[in-house]
Write a structure and sequence with these properties.
The chain is an alpha+beta fold. The chain has helices spanning 12-25, 52-59, 63-71, 78-87, 110-123, 130-138, 143-151, 173-209, 219-240; strands at 29-35, 38-43, 48-51, 96-100, 103-109. 55% of the residues lie in helices and 12% in strands.
């Protein structure tokens, strides 16, 4: 007979715990650059960081000194104790070992970077570094974080200029132009007609008041006017009676 292997059910609670720890540790570098010799960038959490060499340049010390702080982080050496006192809370390690484009980087977050900077600017005794003092003043009150994030800020897309869009009720300009032209023609026509009527009326009045001349040119008109006046007078008299 066949030898059936024993089927085991995996422990889902341990699997879930491993996946949770793995998700929490999946922090990657999203940007890296060197400005003024200081290596810096941003993490997938959105937080900025400094490289080991960048932190050394910021503090004005050799790269090996920052590496020694990371190596001795779990000890009680005076320098480590001073940096942890500046930090104000417990931290298992001073840096994260991450990779960016195939290059291994030691990333120091802002809390560690500022604590180390304060140590070399204030607590190092005879080893206080002038560069650390200047940079501490330069990047006080969260200025270091703002400086790094400002270097990697994503430029906002420029807004398109506002364009005028005519509504459906608006009439095209050519129709308005034609209407204005026709209105002007009508106004000129009305003015011309009024002037012609007034001119004819003025001529008629002049003819009615004109005296008889030798040639008798006004005789027909005079006779017509007198006949009309007589008819009007008679009709008025008959209507009054």
């Amino acid at each position: 007979m066949f030898d059936l292997a024993r089927i085991t059910t995996p422990d889902t609670r341990n699997l879930r715990a491993r996946r949770t720890r793995q998700a929490k540790s999946e922090i990657i570098i999203t940007a890296y650059e060197e400005y003024d010799g200081i290596g810096m960038g941003t993490l997938s959490t959105g937080e900025p960081y400094l490289t080991q060499r960048g932190l050394a340049v910021l503090c004005g010390v050799q790269n090996a000194h920052i590496g020694t702080i990371s190596r001795d982080w779990t000890t009680d050496k005076p320098r480590i104790a001073a940096v942890k006192a500046r930090l104000g809370f417990k931290r298992g390690a001073a840096h994260r070992v991450l990779a960016f484009e195939g290059r291994r980087l030691y990333a120091y977050d802002m809390a560690i970077a500022c604590a180390v900077l304060d140590y070399y600017a204030l607590d190092a005794g005879n080893h206080i570094q002038p560069e650390a003092v200047r940079n501490r003043v330069r990047f006080r009150d969260g200025g270091l974080k703002a400086h790094i994030l400002g270097r990697f800020a994503i430029p906002q897309a420029q807004a398109e200029p506002i364009r005028f869009v005519p509504t459906e009720a608006d009439e095209p300009e050519d129709i308005n132009a034609v209407a204005a032209f026709l209105m002007r023609i009508w106004s000129l026509y009305a003015l011309s007609f009024w002037m012609a009527v007034n001119h004819i009326e003025e001529l008629r009045q002049q003819w009615a008041r004109a005296p008889w001349n030798r040639l008798g040119l006004y005789l027909p008109l005079k006779a017509v006017l007198e006949i009309q006046a007589e008819i009007v007078r008679r009709n008025t008299t008959l209507g009054f009676r």
